[in-house]
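Thread: zinc ion complex, take 2
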Amino acid sequence: MARPAQTIDEQDLERALLRKSVDTLADRRDLCADCNRTPLIGESLHRYAGGVTVCELCSPLRRGEPVESERVRHSEFGLTVRVHRA
Ligand SMILES: [Zn+2]
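Output below.
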């Protein structure tokens, strides 16, 4: 006996596509290991030994100096077109 074709509602499709894109964005972002917050653009991220990443607000609560610090940039940073004048 053949199974009926599975149909998908338009709203279900929209929800599935939105969830997929949000999950993709969430995979690429940094989270603070202490407060679990996503740092804002322009905020500093501090990396400590062992690969622990901490936000600017939680960094003073840690002992020791970070191995490296970097500024949080917009997701399109480096993808913009630059005009080069000769
Ligand atoms: Zn934090």
